[in-house]
């Protein structure tokens, strides 16, 4: 996501500082292509420099307590959190500890397609986050794809659908490519055809005024090849499997929020 933001030009590299425990990640961020102004292993040093600006939390949920304890001074700026299943209330308590100021928080759930500027992102804000700050985050996220503002109660659903969604689609592409190889196509050609098919279908779904079921039906001619394939998808439970996958991810996000 950081790569996408920097590539957009909206956020200048000179204004960005990064903390990471991985030396390899820090070296990558300091190379000539994606350099940032400041990169360190110390969260304390980073927040001394940038704590009154926008602090982006891109860590595992179970690391929040550890990271917040490394912050020498409470964050006075805006906190943008990418932590799955972690509520705004939890983030505010951790980031504003021992301080009367409760920092505004925006929860963000992008997906890995942000790296190519095609993320499906949703954001939710705290009650004390102004319209201006919320719009700023939305504008930032719009540089790496589409972005919608939703109530916080829907963030688990967003996580399960679009946050985890690329993995489901990669599985679909891989399965389609395997079938193509089985039927005689080279691996590279099969992957290219399957990937472009998913890309084209997604573009049609986004740009067409028709329901996706209508778009599917338009491809299914009587006694044709496509309806035979669609029937097999229904027979083997692909639709139910995808729905169950989303629901399982949603439930896992909720469990993380409960500390499980």
From TrEMBL:
Pfam families: P5CR_dimer. Transmembrane segments: none annotated. Its EC number is 1.5.1.2. Keywords: Amino-acid biosynthesis, NADP, Oxidoreductase, Proline biosynthesis. One of its GO terms (molecular function) is pyrroline-5-carboxylate reductase activity. One of its GO terms (biological process) is L-proline biosynthetic process. Pathway: Amino-acid biosynthesis; L-proline biosynthesis; L-proline from L-glutamate 5-semialdehyde: step 1/1. Residues 152-255 form the Pyrroline-5-carboxylate reductase dimerisation domain. InterPro entries: 6-PGluconate_DH-like_C_sf, NAD(P)-bd_dom_sf, P5CR_dimer, Pyrroline-COOH_reductase. NADP(+) binds at residues 58-61. Homodecamer; composed of 5 homodimers. This is Pyrroline-5-carboxylate reductase 3.
